[in-house]
Task: structure prediction
Amino acid sequence: MKGAWRHFWTITCSSFTSAVLCSILFSSCGLMAPLNNSLVLELLCMCVSTALGMAAADKILDVANVETLLPEVLLRFGICYVLIFSEGALFQMFPFDFRHMAEVLPVLVPTYAVTHFAAYRMSVACASEINHKIEQETKSQKS
Result:
């Protein structure tokens, strides 16, 4: 359970940081509304719900026993896109119609890439830690 919380907060923090930085960049270029307190809280809400969506994706992928990377990436990106677009429309960041679906992409794509990389690095670190503990136990049992 401790690892799940660490994974959840890693995803939340990395996606929030990336989303805020992208929002600052795009708002300074005039592509988005200026960043304000309510927008930052909306981004935080989106990042928390996305982290919950990623936890759901992990469960789906475990049950489906998916072993290739492409379905995993597509499922995760789809979940992120649906959540962000729905919440963006709910928070009235943009209208809920097909013409505005592309407005999500300038922030979603880099944020997804950063978040996926952070989650991957964390998974590799956890796997290394587990392998190290197994190696130590094997050495102590041989002694």
Q: What stands out?
A: The mean pLDDT is 85. The chain is about 80% helix and 0% strand. Residues 2-134 form one domain. The radius of gyration is 18 Å.
